[in-house]
Amino acid sequence: QQPVQSPQAVILREGEDAVINCSSSKALYSVHWYRQKHGEAPVFLMILLKGGEQKGHDKISASFNEKKQQSSLYLTASQLSYSGTYFCGTTGGGGADGLTFGKGTHLIIQP
Amino acid sequence: SQTIHQWPATLVQPVGSPLSLECTVEGTSNPNLYWYRQAAGRGLQLLFYSVGIGQISSEVPQNLSASRPQDRQFILSSKKLLLSDSGFYLCARGGTGEQYFGPGTRLTVT
């Protein structure tokens, strides 16, 4: 089942903070976050695994609440380059399963 | 470094024509490989994944098929394209849990 992302869109001024949420109705093993710029492929930001392990970019932070099946991506002191569409992808198991993606959150950073 | 190549970058094909999209990976052996499709303005949908040569798992029944003839090669095919096959086709490779996308092929079916 497709995870639900909120909000659908956010407009920020440069330097402001944003939180993007991803929730699922089923148990999750992992949550993956990507950013996609218009016309380009999604770029990996972070993976959060059941049990607490995380891997990703130093300037990106995220949380994963396994009990609530929710994850949040925190963008602090936003820069113009943060603009794009953010997708969360989830897996229910730890094998080679592909990702089930949410519909995305559009983030616009204004100067 | 581990690089994903996709060919061609863009493609315009008439309805009913065949399709072959290629994905090749460098710098790693026996990777998990994935095909996703993104319709215009939409999210990404998993189509196929493969854990090794000749091993294909299909997620969505449709007129597309996938093959993995070599360790680092993943091919997406169709015998007859539909208008609804238009979209951005992305190949991804699995890392230690995470997945990385190739540059994609933008397909327009006319």
Record the SSE blueprint.
The complex is a heterodimer of chains A (111) and B (110).
Chain A: E1 4-6, E2 9-13, E3 18-23, E4 30-36, E5 43-49, E6 54-56, E7 61-65, E8 70-75, E9 84-91, E10 100-101, E11 105-110
Parallel strand pairs in A: 2-11
Antiparallel strand pairs in A: 1-3, 3-8, 4-5, 4-9, 5-6, 7-8, 9-10, 9-11
Chain B: E1 3-7, E2 10-13, E3 19-26, E4 33-38, E5 44-52, E6 55-58, E7 64-70, E8 73-78, E9 87-94, E10 99-101, E11 105-109
Parallel strand pairs in B: 2-11
Antiparallel strand pairs in B: 1-3, 3-8, 4-5, 4-9, 5-6, 7-8, 9-10, 9-11
This entry's quaternary arrangement is heterodimer
Terminal CA distance of chain B reads: 37 Å
Shape of chain B: globular
Low-confidence stretches of chain A: none
Structural class of chain A: mainly beta
CATH class of chain A: Mainly Beta
Shape of chain A: globular
Total number of distinct structural domains of chain B: 1
Mean pLDDT of chain B: 93
Total separate domains of chain A: 1
Q: Enumerate how many helices of chain B there are, as a single number.
A: 0
Name the CATH class of chain B: Mainly Beta
CATH homology group of chain B: Immunoglobulins
Reported CATH architecture of chain B? Sandwich
As a whole number of angstroms, the C-alpha radius of gyration of chain A is 13 Å
- Helicity of chain A, as a percent range: under 10%
